[in-house]
Amino acid sequence: MKAHLQQEYIKHYGKEASATYFSPGRVNLIGEHIDYNGGLVMPCAITFGSYLLVSPNNDQVFRFKSLNFSEQAEVPLQAEHKKIGEVWYNYPVGVITHFINDGKNLQGLDMLFYGDIPIGSGLSSSASIEVVTAFALNDLFNAGYSKLDLVKLSQSVENKFIGVNCGIMDQFAVAFGEKDKALMLNCDTLDYQAVDSNLGNYLLAIINTNKPRKLAESKYNERVQECQTALAALKQQLDINYLCDIDTETFEQHKHLITDATVQARAAHVVAENDRVKLAAKALSNNNLAEFGRLMYASHQSLRELYEVSGVELDTVVDYSKTNPNVAGARMTGAGFGGCAIALVKKEAFDTFSEEVTAYYSNKIGYAPSVYASLIGDGVGMLNEVMSGE
Ligand code: ADP
Ligand code: MG
Fold first, then answer.
1. Measured from the CB, is residue 91 less than 6 Å from ligand 1?
2. Nearest Cα residue to atom 22 of ligand 1
């Protein structure tokens, strides 16, 4: 794979890349739709991601090429950098612009990107490409940013330069991810704990429903609003800042304050999901994958019935998973309404799982999902093997 990328680099730039960087994609293992309620999320880096091969040039230009997209570009170092339509290289240009605006001294670069993450499926190829670019620039030009600076800078690029209003979880996970660790993270305080998550003889199956996530944004805003309504109602009697400041027991005692049944159901999900994250961290660090799997199914059911952000495609994947004894648990991951589901599947049973879920899903939905086998991988870094170009 990497030797092949060096070949591509030579073909395009007529010289070898002097360095290669890698940044993963991510999945959220559990803790869905609670980051904006002061809750805990639990993402991990996956073993798919984005590669950046690069070498400096003396031409005062940034050259952009991606093996995943046809557009390529050459942008002068001194130019005023603005977002150009929807082209992919807005992401690295945004990162470069951030460095320049911070007064960092850059030099021209010849860059080649390649991603083996499914793009636009909720596995955060966008955070991956931002963070790999930021990490590489920081390293090549000794810009002196900490890893957390790079995370914040990348999020700011996505929010302000690209114009996508994402939280910090994605950039955080792809930067701070560690092999066999899940990151239990509070997205407000950025307090986090790396939780030992040895999957043993299981792997993480990622099932892309291949359904465009059309509804996600409007429904997301609706849920944020509903959570604010629930919080305001509870505040009549409770001194809290977020729904996740209370546990299930306290919620049960006070839920009557929320008069709208739908809004009450939304809050019930939020509070219980936050409790589940804490239980999941315990289960994972105790190697209790059966319990973790149970929590995954419970999370999905809550997102489906109480929070109503699933859909027939994601439900079909989870419904099938429940019939397969080699699956410990499964759930939708990400905002919902499409995108990906994850399942904890015995390694030796993955091929059968993949075939069966594909058949079951295709039969019900009318088109096939894409199924990937992943492990919990490392966060962003430089790949230090010398790439021979062979
Ligand atoms: P997601 O983050 O869920 O994968 P987004 O729509 O947020 O989806 O981000 C996808 C965009 O990120 C792509 O359309 C492209 O502009 C950029 N991108 C991701 N990976 C690559 C890559 N390997 N090469 C070039 N651009 C990429
Ligand atoms: Mg994205």
1. yes
2. 115
What is the spatial distance between Cα 13 and Cα 147, in angstroms, rounded to a whole number? 30
86 CA: nearest ligand 1 atom: 16
- ipTM greater than cut 0.90: yes
Q: Note whether 327 and 302 are within 8 A (CB).
A: no
CATH of 2-198+377-388, one of 1.10.10.60, 3.30.230.10, 2.40.340.10, 3.10.180.10: 3.30.230.10
Domain ranges for the chain, please list them. 2-198+377-388, 202-374
* Straight-line distance from the first to the last Cα atom of the chain, in angstroms, rounded to the nearest whole number: 11
CA dist list (Å): 312 to 119, 199, 266, 297, 332: 22, 28, 19, 16, 11
Q: State which fold the 202-374 domain adopts.
A: Alpha-Beta Plaits (3.30.70)
Active site residue 170: yes
CA 292 to ligand 1 centroid distance, Å: 30
Q: In the chain, what percentage of residues exceed pLDDT 90?
A: 91
- Per DSSP, which regions of 276-339 are E strands? 327-333
115 CB less than 6 Å from ligand 1? yes
For 336, half-sphere exposure in the C-beta direction (CA atoms, 13 angstrom radius) is 24
205 burial type by CB count under 10 A (0-12 exposed, 13-18 middle, 19+ buried):
buried
Which ligand 1 atom sits nearest the alpha carbon of residue 334? Answer: 3
Residue 67 has pLDDT above 90, yes or no: yes
**Rounded CA separation 335/311 (Å):** 11
The whole-number average pLDDT for the span 246-252 is 97
Answer whether 72 contacts ligand 1 (Cβ < 6 A). Answer: no
Tokens of 148: 């957390």
